[in-house]
Amino acid sequence: METIFSKLHNAIAKMAGQAGLVKKNTVKKKDLYASIELTSQRLKSFTGGFEVMSDADKRTLADRIYAMKTKSDAQACAAYINLAAQTRSRTDSSSAFSSIIIASKAIANVLNNFLANIDLIFEGANDINIHTAKLSHVAMFGFIEKAEMYSNYIVALLYCISYEVSVHNGTHELDKPKPYKYSLINDKYEEFKTFHDQMMHGGRESYLNTFKSLIKSVDNIRVANADTGSNLNMIDDSQLQGYSRGFLYQYSLNPFKWIGEQWNLIRDAVYKKREAEREAILTHINFLTAEMNGKDPNSEEYQKYVKVIAAYNEMVAKLDQKINAYYNE
Fold it and tell me: Are the CB atoms for 257 and 169 separated by under 8 Å?
């Protein structure tokens, strides 16, 4: 039976055995810091935007989302409603995005903890590769990847819900979001839901406590060696199971590529996307505020939001296409 650790063992062995890839799959501390900071800021843009929205408007938006429950073309609203029902949230039905705001802050808190302790995590080094990485690095990479997935999902959810709830006389006021946004909402729902539920119910404390404990532990070994590829068999099985239950279910080696060899190629696109998306998020929330307050769709203010959203959505879509082209090589 294949387990989390047998998969990780095989992935480490494969990467460690690929001659010549160590140098270009090296993650520099400053690049990792920049990547983590961007994801943290992205979550902050989302939560900050909704915190400006009044409680009354968030209640109205929640009512509008639930009113779409029976509509066959309201996939994002359906995902939102299912999430609220399946993850024990008691407030999402009365205040829009309330549990997502809480979970986003918890995720950002872990990311900011990484930033505050980056020198300790790197143990004085300026970079890591598969042969110098420790188990704590692999666990950290897993969380970073989950945080990126989570931020991708909630932004897509915001875009698509904005489109679905702003309908007058049978006509949508916004252009329909790009198909990849809906694909993300559908394809990543289970992964998103699981991570969301964990972060809503003690996941932040559990992760950080386990991470801090691992850093100081003899189990925080280098994960690869030049002979057999993987060192995981050096850790006692019972310890591995404990780490698996605690937080290593979300391990990843992907950042060795994304923040290693690809970072210099995608950095400018990532920063441009961050700026465009920050404005897009705030404009979507301002648009929803106007919509919830019954602003005339033909008014100059309302139509300005529609045009700005269309422009930013197009810009972000092109940048996403460019970034994903490198990720999927």
Answer: no
Counting Cβ atoms within 10 Å, is residue 109 exposed (0-12), middle (13-18) or buried (19+)? middle
Whether 7 contacts 252, CB under 8 Å: no
Q: Closest Cα partner for 312 from 288, 286, 276?
A: 276
Residue 172 burial (CB count, 10 A): 14
Give CA–CA dist 284/235, Å, rounded: 49
Measured CA to CA in angstroms, residue 76 lies from 20, 73, 86, 182 at distances of 44, 9, 15, 8
| CA pair distance 261, 264, nearest whole angstrom | 7
Tokens linked to 43: 């979550």
- Cα 83 to Cα 176: distance, rounded to the nearest angstrom: 22
What mean pLDDT comes out for the span 175-188?
Answer: 95
pLDDT, average across residues 241-253: 65
CB 276 within 8 A of CB 312: yes
Rounded to 5 degrees, φ, ψ at 171 are -115, 130
- Distance from C-alpha of 216 to C-alpha of 282, rounded to nearest angstrom: 41
CB atoms within 10 A of CB 227: 7
Q: What are 67's two structure tokens? A: 């009113």
How many angstroms separate the CA atoms of 248 and 223, rounded? 13
**Burial (0-12, 13-18, 19+ Cβ within 10 Å), 66:** middle
* Least confident segment among 105-109, 220-224, 228-232, 242-246: 242-246
Q: In the predicted model, is pLDDT for residue 29 greater than 70?
A: yes
* Over residues 181-196, mean pLDDT: 95
Amino acid at 328: N
Tokens representing residue 184 in the block: 């993300």
Paired residues of 225 in beta bridges: 229
Please write the tens of the pLDDT for every residue from 4-22.
667 777 888 888 877 666 7
Q: Is residue 47 helix, strand or coil?
A: helix
Question: Which pLDDT does position 100 carry in this prediction?
Answer: 95
Q: How far apart are CA 125 and CA 109, in angstroms?
A: 24
